[in-house]
């Protein structure tokens, strides 16, 4: 189980994240909010890339500061922009990240073949990454994120730049891989969470203003409660 407790991050006097408390179980957690709401800050702290000002992240009751690399091996993180070696093929890219993530040599071929099939890139196994479209690179990014079969997956604005068909395929894939994992997905596009999110977290100016299980309530309507033209500044209350 993953938990964040009293999590706060400050940059000088600015609070990017304010006293956040969330328990993450299996399923898809949608982090919703406009740019600057604190979504990326929260995910970077969970991924152990960024240190909090106060509070902490717990995995199975232990602070990740003590777990160190044992925790990081359980994380798969796809940031907004991923740097690839353009002259690497899809296969070489996955081999490279598999080594970094500690995949055993005798498991590597089967794992790579399975990841490429999962993201519909089996026919492109020997194609160089520089020839890939934006959608293909994003699918390769999912395969890279999944190569070590982590328990916790984090995706930061993963559908930016994708066409409608690629966005739909991406959402279907996320639903498939979330059955036995915790998936944290940030977006400012409300429709990206429709039909796939199990839980929704709405962030506003660093504050978690909603933390609820998805139900039949209109997600667009819920979002507009906080980001409509006449909404109050809830975080400063």
Explain this structure.
The protein is an alpha/beta fold and 237 residues long. The chain has 2 domains: 1-74 and 157-163 and 184-237, 3-Layer(aba) Sandwich (Rossmann fold); 78-150, no CATH class. The protein is built from 8 helices and 10 strands. The chain has a 6-stranded mixed β-sheet with strand order 6-7-8-3-9-10, with helices on both faces. A 4-stranded antiparallel β-sheet has the order 2-1-4-5. A hairpin with a 2-residue loop joins strand 1 (2-11) and strand 2. Helix 4 (90-100) crosses helix 5 and helix 5 runs antiparallel to helix 6. The longest helix has 14 residues, at 105-118. The protein starts with a strand and ends in a 10-residue tail after the last helix. The mean pLDDT is 89.
What's this, in brief?
The chain is built from eight helices and ten strands.
- Can you summarize the main beta sheet? 6 strands, mixed
CATH topology of the largest domain: Rossmann fold
State the assembly state of the protein chains.
Answer: single chain
State the share of residues found in helices, binned by percent.
Answer: 25-40%
**Beta-sheet strand percentage?**
25-35%
End-to-end separation in angstroms reads: 31 Å
Q: Give the CA-based shape.
A: globular
In spatial order, strands of the major sheet run 6-7-8-3-9-10
Spell out the CATH superfamily of the largest domain: P-loop containing nucleotide triphosphate hydrolases
Q: What is the level-2 CATH architecture name of the largest domain?
A: 3-Layer(aba) Sandwich
Average pLDDT number = 89
Number of helices: 8
CATH class of the largest domain: Alpha Beta
Low-confidence residue ranges: none
Secondary-structure element order, as H and E? EEEHEEHHEHHHEHEEEH
Estimate nothing, just give the exact number of structural domains: 2
Structural class: alpha/beta
User: Tally of extended strands?
Assistant: 10
Rg, Cα atoms, Å: 18 Å
